[in-house]
Specification:
- The structure is a single chain.
- By secondary structure, the protein is an all-beta fold.
- It has one domain: Beta Barrel (Porin), CATH 2.40.160.
- The protein contains two helices and 18 strands.
- The strands form two sheets. A 16-stranded antiparallel β-barrel has the order 1-2-3-4-5-6-7-8-9-12-13-14-15-16-17-18. Strands 10-11 form a two-stranded antiparallel ribbon.
- Strand 2 and strand 3 form a beta hairpin.
């Protein structure tokens, strides 16, 4: 992965006098973690490592960075139906994903402006991002407004044709309010637009085909797997509400997050997450958490092309997003998922703490717009993290 030049950083760096140039940063915070995601049946296995840090260069300027490395192996559903022998239901895959992120923030009065650049690379996917955000403190810092824009430019490798472009742009705004010494609430709204190549080049959809001979007779039916054809644009709206309250008698905090999303694919989703952070003594914290997610199917989701595209019409090998649209990817079906987890955190000293967690994740199809039940994963997720500050 080639290095990228941080060309915007000098625009926000303060002008340093000679004496200040040798001053050590006021604060440094680093954390690193390792996670193992293992689906049942040894289907997908992902090992993730990250390292990130935040450095206060001086009272007004800070630098934030992150490095991510994922090792992915196993197999994933192709889009073909289960319990048939002509087409593979699962396809093997393996890849390495590496990502880097850098951000520079600068305080201007009550405003804090941050510029962020990022890059993520896989064997067949390259993503570059640029973001600009502003947080504005009001009401003696009891109220904070946030605004921002995020842009991603992706290049997707598709077998048989030239690399395809995909673009995403998000606008977001948010409000955080301190209600009292123990309660904080926030609301965030994101409007996003994706355009370009939105297909997954590894997902297909099956159809029962026959060969029609010149004399009008037909061959025995057989199955074919065709490339999916999602629309080439997607507009989405996401609203997230969050509240945190500290219960003094219990020496514990409850964090609740509700998220609602809608897009012009026809996918409407809702999720709720609850965390109970319970302090035990001065150094130990136990955090059970719960997350539930539910979505409707995309308008163009279907399990087969049978009865949708006549057998006399051949679907294109490389669809361009034009109508008719179709996809059998289980992630676009009607589904719900449930996560239950437990995180243990120990504060060894003022400067160092560590945590371990376990999460059980299960996904299921819902109703008549579901994919085959075997397509939905269940997984165990183990994580360990370390936190250091100076």
């Amino acid at each position: 992965m080639k290095p990228r030049h941080f060309v915007l950083a000098p625009l926000l760096l303060p002008t340093l006098r000679p004496a200040e140039a040798l001053t050590l940063p006021e604060a440094q915070r680093y954390d690193s973690g390792f996670q193992v995601y293992q689906e049942d049946g040894e289907r997908m296995h992902i090992e993730s490592f990250y390292f990130k840090g935040l450095i206060d260069i001086n009272a007004d300027t800070s630098l934030r960075f992150q490095y991510l490395h994922d090792a992915i192996s196993g197999s994933s559903p192709t889009g073909a139906l289960h319990n048939q022998t002509e087409l593979p239901f699962l396809s093997p895959m393996h890849d390495i994903r590496q990502g880097i992120l850098g951000a520079l923030a600068r305080q201007f009065g009550d405003h804090r402006v941050e510029v962020e650049v990022s890059q993520s690379k896989e064997t067949d996917y390259l993503s570059r991002g640029l973001a600009l955000s502003d947080t504005w403190d009001l009401n003696q810092k009891n109220t904070t407004l946030a605004f921002g824009i995020n842009y991603l430019s992706d290049e997707v490798t598709v077998r048989g044709i030239a690399p395809q472009d995909k673009h995403s742009i998000d606008f977001f705004t948010g409000l955080t309010q301190i209600l009292d010494k123990n309660t904080v609430v926030s609301a965030n709204l994101t409007l996003g637009y994706n355009y370009g190549y939105l297909n997954d080049p590894y997902k297909g959809i099956q159809r029962t085909d026959v060969i029609i001979f010149d004399d009008g007779s037909m061959s025995n039916p057989f199955l074919n797997l065709y490339a999916e054809n999602r629309p080439d644009h997607r507009f989405r709206e996401v609203l997230q509400l969050q509240g945190t309250h500290f219960f003094e008698p219990c020496n514990a905090a409850l964090d609740a997050v509700y998220r609602i999303s809608n897009d012009d694919f026809g996918v409407f989703s809702q999720s709720i997450q609850l965390e109970w952070r319970q302090a035990i003594g001065e150094k130990f914290e136990v955090t059970p958490y719960f997350r539930y997610y539910r979505q409707t199917a995309a308008d163009f989701f279907r399990n087969t092309l049978d009865g949708f595209i006549p057998i006399t019409v051949s679907p294109p090998d490389h669809p361009n997003g034009s109508s008719p649209n179709y996809a059998a990817d289980y992630r676009l079906s009607a589904l719900d998922s449930l996560s239950l987890g437990l995180r243990l955190t120990y504060q060894f000293c003022d400067n160092f703490s560590a945590s371990v967690s376990y999460e059980r994740y299960q996904m299921h199809g819902v109703g008549s717009n579901a994919a085959p039940s075997a397509a939905y994963p269940s997984a165990d997720i183990w994580s360990c993290c370390a936190y250091v500050k100076f």
